[in-house]
Amino acid sequence: xxxxxxxxxxxxxxxxxxxxxxxxxxxxxxxxxxxxxxxxxxxxxxxxxxxxxxxxxxxxxxxxxxxxxxxxxxxxxxxxxxxxxxxxxxxxxxxxxxxxxxxxxxxxxxxxxxxxxxxxxxxxxxxxxxxxxxxxxxxxxxxxxxxxxxxxxxxxxxxxxxxxxxxxxxxxxxxxxxxxxxxxxxxxxxxxxxxxxxxxxxxxxxxxxxxxxxxxxxxxxxxxxxxxxxxxxxxxxxxxxxxxxxxxxxxxxxxxxxxxxxxxxxxxxxxxxxxxxxxxxxxxxxxxxxxxxxxxxxxxxxxxxxxxxxxxxxxxxxxxxxxxxxxxxxxxxxxxxxxxxxxxxxxxxxxxxxxxxxxxxxxxxxxxxxxxxxxxxxxxxxxxxxxxxxxxxxxxxxxxxxxxxxxxxxxxxxxxxxxxxxxxxxxxxxxxxxxxxxxxxxxxxxxxxxxxxxxxxxxxxxxxxxxxxxxxxxxxxxxxxxxxxxxxxxxxxxxxxxxxxx
Amino acid sequence: xxxxxxxxxxxxxxxxxxxxxxxxxxxxxxxxxxxxxxxxxxxxxxxxxxxxxxxxxxxxxxxxxxxxxxxxxxxxxxxxxxxxxxxxxxxxxxxxxxx
Amino acid sequence: xxxxxxxxxxxxxxxxxxxxxxxxxxxxxxxxxxxxxxxxxxxxxxxxxxxxxxxxxxxxxxxxxxxxxxxxxxxxxxxxxxxxxxxxxxxxxxxxxxxxxxxxxxxxxxxxxxxxxxxxxxxxxxxxxxxxxxxxxxxxxxxxxxxxxxxxxxxxxxxxxxxxxxxxxxxxxxxxxxxxxxxxxxxxxxxxxxxxxxxxxxxxxxxxxxxxxxxxxxxxxxxxxxxxxxxxxxxxxxxxxxxxxxxxxxxxxxxxxxxxxxxxxxxxxxxxxxxxxxxxxxxxxxxxxxxxxxxxxxxxxxxxxxxxxxxxxxxxxxxxxxxxxxxxxxxxxxxxxxxxxxxxxxxxxxxxxxxxxxxxxxxxxxxxxxxxxxxxxxxxxxxxxxxxxxxxxxxxxxxxxxxxxxxxxxxxxxxxxxxxxxxxxxxxxxxxxxxxxxxxxxxxxxxxxxxxxxxxxxxxxxxxxxxxxxxxxxxxxxxxxxxxxxxxxxxxxxxx
Lengths: 502, 99, 496
Hints:
Chain B: Keywords: ATP-binding, Ligase, Nucleotide-binding, Protein biosynthesis. The structure holds 3 protein chains of 3 kinds. By secondary structure, chain B is mainly alpha-helical.
């Protein structure tokens, strides 16, 4: 066995091994109340204020299942093309852990609510079908904060303090079948799957799927097999993968790590590994070889779930348009190339563009702003596009101001900058910064006079027929007006003043 | 032959979070052996064609509407806690997994 | 006649009419507790102040012209397995010593709504696991008929309180016989309603799929009144049945069996049964026939597997239900000295906080659910459960009710079976099938065993939601027996 941290470069790893990946995704449902009690599910409340006898597991308390959570799980299953069980039960998964008040988790075991579905994702122009093994419903745990250690991590801590606000929030677990044949695209496929799943959850309206708040969490399974063989290798399960980029990095990193071990003649241990967002590295957790005995048994406090076929069909008929179909339809409507679609998808800009179009902006403009100026700013500040403090409605307002001639592109960028800096709405920024275009002909004329006087050489060139030289004069006007002049009108006026026509 | 060994009882005690002394393990091993020997009779009639019953009555589909109800106050929630810090339940150091 | 000798129905009527005040009635029972409970030890906690306060609230309501319910102002002793926000709730375990829950069990709340005055909390086998109350962490309760004998269990404090006139009514929970067996061995009435007929919310769980709250009383009508007061659908308990409470009070008042088909369970009798128990059972059969019932023998072959199935299912569920008692959020915590991990503190806490029988059952259940053993043990037991339900179904095609002795023996001496779990488990032999299938079943006194002069109970089992049949047959027998005995059986009990 090796414990070295050596890695094999990705290309070499892929030349020698073929990866098989699998993903287990936990989605916190956006229900108003918890899975088995009436406590609210909202994020960020003061500790232990969203708790009751049921979710604190006080003696005598009993769970009652949330109908919306059952319905949402069935809708997720249907959207993932799954079979919905006609009859299934909750099961208790027994293990002791301080953040789990009952010391068992109400989950589902051998009777999941949804089974055997699939989700198609597009990577590099190719469609990859990810088979879904199961979708089941369970409950979340509380949150421990580890105290007294140097790192805030569990290792080395002196003690922990526990907040049970999150305990009992409904969680849907979506498990893929092992995905083969992705080859060197494995990291991208993993990321594309999670991205697509997130889109799907959003379109269903079942979760806010905010990875940074933990409402979508991913465990990534990776194994390698030497090229030319067909037997899967031993897999590891990487937990704590909490951003789309991390999903990609985790798969990438695990391929490199496992390849190095296998190449040295070592063996992979079936274990849980923890992903560290800061370094991108993984560290070993519990070895699964001394597997926990969870002693699953049917939950006696809850009755079996037996969705009627009529109800399932009703839910199926009410499903929203699948995101892939919607994207294809909008692509046609907007007249966007495949490449541009892929760019938007990768930048996670699609829904933002769509919302901006819905707010009344021509598709080309919406795309231009999100993929241009705003993408650049997001990149600079290292935030996700969706987390920029600007709304599609605000962009629509800026675009409308440009269309009316009140702003030009340069001023519009300044307005966006002001909005992003928290200076208020677009109109407030225009007002406060004095960004309206100078359309007053008198003011423009006097600026032009100043510019022609200061640039007599250029003016002469234009007079002598070198019309191209007018650019420098227009530039001078724009500079003198601090960008507020209407450049087209300035050009017309300069040519007129110099007695030249095009 | 005994149905259960002392080592198995030690394993069960660990799984059940019961810190038992060696003498207790011996005592329980002997008693559990007798009990398990007796209850194993259920297998005599439990043939493959009989469906298991997990509940007393065959009811299904009982849910509650997704409505928020009043919570306990943090004072009530923490009132019986053996140790409290910063409105949270203070527990001894946890070994093993990171959440 | 002393107020403590009156029935709950009589007391309710006296209070409603203003002939006596609820405070007088409560005080009379508190005095009786002070007088005799030192010997009986039925109560773990006596809530004298709260009880008197509630009683005076009832008196005030009456004075204000409000109409009172049939049990308003009537005292009740409450098994210490129901949560009560104004009293400690321990489940008879050291792990919950001094614990005060922040909420009332549904049944606690319904007792209060019905105007019943809760005198205090009664002793029980720890977490309701046992048949003698010897497993309580707070000492054994004594049988009023013979202080050297057990009062039954697990609801032994509740049976002893009623049998010793410390309360006219009490509550219990019945998982494998924990109401019927204590009722039988103390000469009173105890009813296990249909599973789901009475709410489990706030009942500290032993075995979720079996636990059923129910009433104790000194006569059938009183039991029915209490049954009606606290039963019925509860949204907080998913397994509670969404239908009307069967007409138990009407059935208890009616009490006739003419034309009724009664089945004697063939499998319950013979070897292992005390002669006096079988003799009194035979008397009951003859009495039922003389009252116009048609008695036939019915075979329920799977019932002989009920006891082993129960001792797999109940421990399995309890091993999981009791996992929450880990010293992290409430209750006892042992070993938190900075050197032990959470896992170690949990194990030390549970080792110190649980008694021997609880530990035994937790380990047995953990074993039965373990991978590799699940199918042979827990899985097989679940199949037996199906077979028992089928036997009941077939039997109830032939007859309206089934009868058997409630217990194979009368009350045994304290200590006799304390470290012999298998012998202790036999006390529930006849009561367990009704728990596994969810049926209604009652125990009603049917005389004294000749050899020891101790009370014997007759068990009457009815189909799911046929609770009223239990009361109907029990009331008919009670009437006939009492005219034969010249009063209730309990008058034969030695004075305390």
